Amino acid sequence: MREVEVVGVRVEMPTNQPLVLLRETDGGRYLPIWIGAVEASAIAYAQQGTATTRPPTHELMQHVIEALGDELAEVRIIDVRDGVFFASLIFASGAEVEARPSDSIALALRSGARIVCTEDVLDEAGIESTTDEDEEVEKFREFLDDVQPEDFEG
After folding, report:
1. Fewer CB under 10 Å: which end of the chain, C or N?
2. Is residue 154 domain-resident?
């Protein structure tokens, strides 16, 4: 397993489809995962630490996990088949639950759990970084400083 970090969310043009971009913490690969608009907003809210008057779904789930005396220990991106990614939530109690990567990432950002990815997934769907891509990622980070979660709502 390789640890990855969330670079951010963006809307891919011309399809207008949101994606979350992950990056190996100790390597040069990026992993783009296409997600829904609702999940893009949830990830953006979590990244920015945006407070809401009522807990959104992923925050509610985090509260339920804590109320049950457990904690999310790790998110694993475990497979990609026909462009569809699969993930597992690994809990401190030893429980494991299959989940969509977008939901898993939103929960990881709220709980502080680490995110890891199998080498096979990175080999199949990862993109090697180049200097130009690093510059593009820096521009993307600057974009994220100004983007608001509402920008992803349809």
Report:
1. C
2. no
